[in-house]
Write a structure and sequence with these properties.
Blueprint: H1 2-21, E1 38-40, E2 43-45, H2 50-57, E3 60-64, E4 67-68, E5 72-74, E6 80-81, H3 83-94, E7 102-106, H4 112-117, E8 123-129, H5 132-135, E9 138-147, E10 149-154, E11 174-177, H6 181-185, E12 196-199, H7 202-210, E13 216-220, H8 221-229, E14 235-238, E15 245-252, H9 256-268, H10 270-278
Helix pairs in contact: 3-10
The structure holds glutamic acid.
Glutamic acid is lined by residues 109, 126-129, 177, 180-182, 219-220, 223, 245.
């Protein structure tokens, strides 16, 4: 697969060079406003846009998870790996920024809006559900994937069969993460607030399930599948999906041009998107195929 990508890149590079060196004029995908415009290969970004600034700087700061197998997991290599990381690389690549010039910033659920608002990152790609409350503070490009909330329990647990069984089992503690949609959504299914245990990141919930401090972990199905696949048969998913979680790319509020650029980039790179999915979260047993959803209008 790597060889194929390399060949595709080389072919694209040759074409780009041919375009620049020969009679053919490069075909900018956005309007060239003159001297102050910034070029990435044949692409020219309008001066003053986030794209022009980032491509000129040649580097980008991206917020993602460091503890979620299949999406953003930091291993011994030092850089996080997973679907969110690959999606982010597709966008950075369209700005002319290669992997080495991406600064990855660990962004647990609770801090996502604030790191965008404070300019600590240029974008957040972190299993980030698009919703109205968050959209009051930041903007979302995408969605680029639609997940749904589910429950994960020990493989030998037959009491918990879905969210409706939680009230009847008040001693079964349910773990989720502060500032996440699943932590809010689950509340109506619980016997009392004390049934809910909250950590800052999901791998602490998985550890607590392993050691028997909690009996249930709840978040998006695809995040849970990653933990199941790493559990040596000790964890399983139970019950159906009971919410819809469309994943968006968080950017500063009001940056409609950047939002549209991201959506267009994903639409133009469906092959890379499919490859990103099948080599990461999509390679886990039980994962469905991913299909790039229709983007929501950029507000
Ligand atoms: N997609 C949900 C959310 O954005 C849960 C996953 C997460 O916490 O990152 O809150």
């Amino acid at each position: 697969m790597r060889a194929k990508t390399l060949i595709a890149l080389l072919a694209a590079g040759t074409l780009a060079l041919a375009g620049c060196g020969g009679d053919a004029t490069p075909d900018p995908t956005t309007v060239d406003t003159g001297d102050s415009a910034t070029s990435v290969g044949p692409t020219t970004f309008e001066a003053g846009t986030t794209m022009a600034e980032l491509s000129k700087a040649g580097k980008i700061k991206i917020g993602t998870k460091f503890d979620q197998p299949g999406f953003g997991l930091k291993g011994l290599s030092g850089d996080p790996e997973g679907f969110d990381v690959e999606v982010a690389k597709i966008i950075a690549g369209a700005l002319g920024i290669e992997g080495d010039n991406i600064e990855w910033v660990e962004t647990p659920s609770k801090v996502r809006e604030e790191v965008i608002e404070q300019g600590k990152v240029d974008m957040v790609v972190a299993t980030y559900t698009i919703n109205e409350k968050r959209a009051e503070r930041i903007a979302f490009a995408g969605p680029y994937y639609i997940a749904g909330q589910q429950l994960m329990v020990a493989a030998d647990d037959d009491k918990i069969t879905g969210p409706e069984s939680l009230k009847d089992n008040p001693d079964s503690k349910v773990c989720s993460v502060v500032g996440s949609t699943p932590a809010e959504n689950i509340k109506e299914y619980l016997a009392s607030d004390s049934q809910l245990v909250l950590f800052d990141v999901y791998d602490k919930c998985a550890d607590a399930l392993r050691t028997g401090q909690v009996q249930v972990v709840t978040t998006d199905n695809v995040i849970l599948l990653g933990f199941v696949s790493e559990s040596d048969g000790k964890f399983k998913l139970t019950g159906d999906l009971f919410t819809e979680e469309p994943y968006g790319i968080g950017i500063p509020k009001g940056d409609t041009t950047f939002c549209e650029f991201i959506n267009q980039t994903l639409a133009d790179n469906e092959d890379a998107y499919n490859e990103a999915w099948s080599s990461t979260a999509g390679s886990v047993e039980g994962a469905a195929d991913a299909k790039l959803p229709e983007p929501a209008p950029c507000a």
